[in-house]
Amino acid sequence: MPDLKSILSRSSSIVTRKTGNEYVLVPVVNNIADMNSVYTLNESGAFIWELIDGRRSIEDIISCLIAEYDTDFKTAEADVYSFVNEMSNYLIVNEKSE
Amino acid sequence: MRSYNLKIAGYNIRIDSAEDGPDFVPGERFLRNICECPDSDILIKVHSGAYPLPEESERVFIAPYIVEIKGMKTSRRDNFWSVYKYQADLLLITNFPYSAPNKKAVLKFSLTSREWELWIAEAGSGTDPLEYPLDGFVLYYLTAINGDIMTHSSGVYIGRHGYLFSGISGKGKTTMAGLWDESGAKIIHDDRIILRKTGSGYRMYNTPVYHDDIPLDSPLTRIFIIEHGTSNKMNLIKGAAAISLVMSNCIQHNWDPELIARLLGSVSIMCSSVPVYKLFFKPDRSVIDHILENE
Question: What is the ipTM metric for this complex?
Fold first, then answer.
């Protein structure tokens, strides 16, 4: 489980396309059984996805979410961790920031 | 027969037997697609015998061979088909479920070359070089090269309206095609459709699946993602949701990010000009009235 200081980056095993304020995500797979999995990210999911850049920590992302959506820390933290859990197969926990 | 051309979904496929290649006996389902076409979009040179896979080749995609024995599904030791990558080439290896067990093929191709090679082991005295499932692979990679879309769908055409009904197995594609057939619509196909962008909009094309298929195409004006329901109800879907619903029903070999990006791009562009609906339907004539009334 990544902590607040963990830095996230996106895995190369997923292909994305932005459409309006949303994203469509398609995983790279090596077996026909896993084919046809497609994910969509709504506006807030897309906002978090775009903040995952290999430099920002989870804490940074939460701060950005609070600023953008005028929400409290607890709600933003829950949203970010929920996103991270949902997308864990396509995220890389790189390192902890200083 | 040592060579012939096929016109499928607007693609011109030239098939030549190499010096060491077999004689051809095209399957009955392809007979109406054979044409005298001077140019070809793709040339497939066919050899007899096995093609030794280079040791350094990397397997990138597999489809297990699932067989049912006394009601139980189990995987055979060999794969149904698989894709390997070797340098700039792709090597697609397949079994043929409706032929002798030792008949196998290797299709050597790339996404940039228009000359492909095919080796068929245990081809026999006369062989269909596009026997199932090889025809689907050739067509799939042709659509990938050309930015087109291959989908599990049924398609119908009536009074300037071209409707695509898409859904996984059991969602009612064939049922829907049957209902429209009874209503006098032209049935493009009830299973496998290729979608291509043309100068005048999108068109849907059938592909030879059944022995009596004849080449058909029509404009595409609406896409329906179908589900059985207790009443007829259609909801317009937009944006990422529309793209993901259509993508989910496309035929796709998602081992390569570039292949995915191409298909995702093609589907996105199509969904920006062709409306996509989620359709719950009762399997009777009322769904046809419902769709036509909402035109």
Answer: 0.86
